[in-house]
Amino acid sequence: MSETMIGSAMLATIASAFFGIQVHLQNAGFDYVDARAGALINIGATTAIMWALAPFYLQPEVLMSRSVILFALAGLLAPAISLSLMTKSVQLIGPSLSSGLGSASPVFAIVLAVVLLGEVITSRIAIGTAIVVSGVMLAAYRIRGKPMSWPLWALALPIVAAMMRGSAHALYKLALVELPNPMVGVLVTVSVAFSAILLVFLLQGRSIPRLNRGYTWFGASGAINAVGMVCFIQALAIGQVVTVSPIIAAAPVFTLLTGALIFRRENVGWKSGVSVLLIVAGCLVILAR
Asked: Which of 175, 157, 158, 190 is nearest to 241 (CA)?
C-alpha cells in the first residue's frame, strides 16, 4: 500500500469518525429545536467557521475557477437536496430503514467515479464495498415485523438521497483535479448548501428559532462537521473515490461506538458487534494489496 493511499485512508477514517460523532451532538440539540431548524444551524455554523478562516487560505481569483461550479453543484446535491429527502424519508418510513437504504451511497459514488473519472474498480474494492454497505445496513435495520404504514414510493426517498451523496463525491474529485484546495472546496460547498436550505426554510414560512441551548449543540456539531469535511475532501484530493467513499460510509460505526463508550446512549448487542466487524473488515479488504 502506497503512502498516499495510507494518508487518504487515514483522513477518510478521521472524517468518518467526526461525521459519526456529530450525530450525538445533534441528538442532544433536538430537545430544543426541530430537525429542519437544527440542520440550518448545523450547516450555518460550518459555513460561518469556513468564512471566518477564509482570510488564511482564500485567494479571490480561485473563485473564478470552473471547479467552483462543480463544488457548488456538489453542495446543492449534498447536503442541501439529500438532507431534505432524508428528513422526509425519516418522517415517512422511520430512521432505521432510511439509514439502511441510504447506506448505498458508496455504490453510486463508485459507479460515477468509474464513468466520469476513469477510476478502476477491482474485485477487491467491489467486495469490500459490499461488505461495508452490508454492515451499515445491519447496524441501521431494526424493524421487528411491523406492518408497512407508508406508501411504497417513499422507499425511493433514501435511495435518491444516497444517489445525491454519491454523485457529490464524484463531483468533489472532478473539481479537485483543477482546484486541489480542500478548504476552498468546503467553503463553496457549505455556502451553497446553507443558502439553499435557508431559502427553502423561509419559503416554507418558518421562522428562525430564538437563541436557546440547541444552538450550542448544533453549533458544536457544525464545528465538528467542518473538520470532517476538510479531512474528507483532502482524502479525495490525494486518493480515489472508490476507496474513500466506502470508508466515509462507515460513519455509523463511530456513532455506535462513541454512543456506547462516551455518550452512554447505545447498547452494543450482537447485531451491533457484527455490523462493526463487517464494516472494519470491508475497509480492510478495500485497502489491502
From this structure: 175
Q: Grid coordinates representing 65?
A: 475557477
Residue 145: pLDDT band with limits 50, 70, 90: very low
Q: What is the mean pLDDT of residues 87-106?
A: 72
Write the single-letter amino acid at 192.
V
Q: Buried (b) or exposed (e) across 162-188, using 16+ Cβ within 10 A?
A: bbbbbbbbbbbbbbbeebebbbbbbbb
- Tell which residue, 226, 214, 196, 186, has the closest CA to residue 45: 226
- Segment 156-181 mean pLDDT: 92
The three cell numbers locating residue 183: 478548504
Q: 3-state SS of the chain: helix, strand, coil percent to 5?
A: 80, 0, 20
Q: Could you give the dihedral angle defined by the CA atoms of residues 231, 236, 238 and 240, in that order, rounded to the nearest 10 degrees?
A: 140
pLDDT band with cut points at 50, 70 and 90 for residue 212: very high
Taking alpha carbons only, the member of 267, 261, 207 closest to residue 21 is: 261
Residue 127 and residue 103: Cα distance in Å, rounded? 15
Contact 170, 106 (CB under 8 A): no
Among residues 24, 29, 96, the alpha carbon closest in space to that of 258 is found at 24
- Residues 88 and 159: beta-carbon distance below 8 Å: no
Decide: 182 and 237 in contact? Cβ < 8 Å. yes
Hey, what's the cell of 218?
448544533
pLDDT, residue 48, reads 97
Spell out the residues 6+ positions from residue 12 whose beta carbon is closer than 8 angstroms to its own: 231, 232, 235, 239, 243, 244, 247, 248
